[in-house]
Design brief:
The chain is α+β, with helices and mostly antiparallel strands and 163 residues long. The protein has one domain (36-157). The protein contains five helices and twelve strands. The chain has helices at residues 2-21, 45-52, 80-83, 110-122, 124-131, and strands spanning 26-28, 31-33, 56-57, 69-72, 75-77, 89-93, 96-100, 106-107, 134-137, 143-144, 147-148, 155-157. A three-stranded antiparallel beta sheet has the order 4-9-12, with helices on one face. A hairpin with a 2-residue loop joins strand 6 and strand 7. Helix 4 crosses helix 5 (124-131). The longest helix has 20 residues, at 2-21. The radius of gyration is 20 Å and the shape is globular. The relative contact order is 0.17.
């Protein structure tokens, strides 16, 4: 009888552990990251949303409308051939390389800079974690008949290369 109860407790603990393992987060410099694929829709949006609200298109509109912002695996400069077609960057989102132009670059507008730098002082771990990644704002990649296509890229933040 005792061995059955013990076996049931061990099995339950094991199964609960498996369930919790699927939803774990890892921590780096006091910032939690979801375990998701960089560039996927919703991946780490909530983590970086407090910074995203400061960012605007170069034209002055907010980049963050819903939940389309996310850190991405990479933003690369486009090839000379692509640049001749008005494509400045290749952005890795939703598992694909999608096109973006210089007009999608984002900035912190002058009117928000004071608040932005105050936020940096209060939340340095999140601020510096933000700087570790390229970021892209785009809706989820549309899919039809099992084929995904690149969504329109609204905004991008291209981190500075290491020196």
């Amino acid at each position: 009888m005792f061995s059955r109860i013990f076996a049931a407790i061990v099995a339950t603990t094991f199964l609960c552990g498996l369930s919790l393992a699927q939803h774990t987060h890892h921590v780096k410099d006091s910032v939690q990251y979801e375990e998701c694929r960089r560039g996927d829709f919703l991946c780490d949006h909530e983590t970086f949303h407090p910074i995203y609200v400061f960012l605007e298109f170069l034209t002055g509109q907010s980049c963050c409308h819903k939940q389309e912002g996310r850190p991405t695996k990479d933003i690369e400069d486009a090839s000379p051939e692509d640049k001749s077609h008005g494509i400045d960057f290749k952005v890795y989102i939703d598992g694909m390389w999608c096109n973006a132009s210089k007009s999608t670059l984002m900035k912190v507008p002058d009117a928000k800079k004071k608040d932005f730098f105050e936020y940096k002082k209060v939340n340095p771990a999140l601020f510096y974690a933000f700087l570790e990644f390229d970021h892209a704002f785009a809706p989820k990649a549309p899919e039809a008949n099992g084929i995904r296509t690149c969504p329109s890229v609204f905004c991008i933040y291209k981190k500075e290369p290491p020196t």
